[in-house]
Amino acid sequence: MRKKYILTFPPEILGLFVFNTLVKGFDFWFNVLRAKIEPDVGGELILELSGDEDKIEKGIEAARKSGVLVSALEDELKWIKDLCEDCGACISACPYQAISMDRGSFELHIDFNKCVACGKCAGVCPVNAISFNF
After folding, report:
1. Which of these, 20, 77, 103, 109, is most buried using a 10 Å CB contact count?
2. Protein fold of 2-75
C-alpha cells in the first residue's frame, strides 16, 4: 500500500523520537515530500508511506497516541468542484502533473498519487476552488 499523510507535530513533542519509532517499530518505507519544523513552534511533515497496510495503520495510531496529528493528504486538499471553472490554470502550475483535464468532458481531475501538496495549484486558481487545510 502507498498513501500520503500529513503529520503535524505540536511544539511540546518535538524532543521525542516519534518519527524514528514509527520507522523502526512498524517497518514501512517513507518518502518525505515536504517538511517544515521549527523549534518552539512545531511543524508538519508530508509523507508518502509504503508498506503493509496493517503496519502503516498501527504506526499512524502510535503517532496519534504520541500527540502527532495525522490526516490523509486527500482529506486536507479541498477542491470545490462546483466553484471550479475548469479553466486549466492549475494544470500548468502543477510541477508534478497531478492535475489533468478530461479531453472529452473538459473537467479537471486531481491524481492524489502524484500530488505532493506544494500549493502551486491553489496559488493560481482564479476562483479559489482549490485550498489546503494545513
Report:
1. 77
2. Alpha-Beta Plaits (3.30.70)
In tens, the pLDDT along 53-103 reads 999 999 999 999 999 999 998 888 888 989 999 999 999 999 999 999 999
Express each pLDDT in 16-67 by its tens digit: 777 777 777 888 888 998 899 898 899 999 999 999 999 999 999 999 999 9
- CATH (residue range 80-132): 3.30.70.20
For residue 73, give the nearest of 105, 104, 45 by alpha carbon: 45
Domain boundaries, the chain: 2-75, 80-132
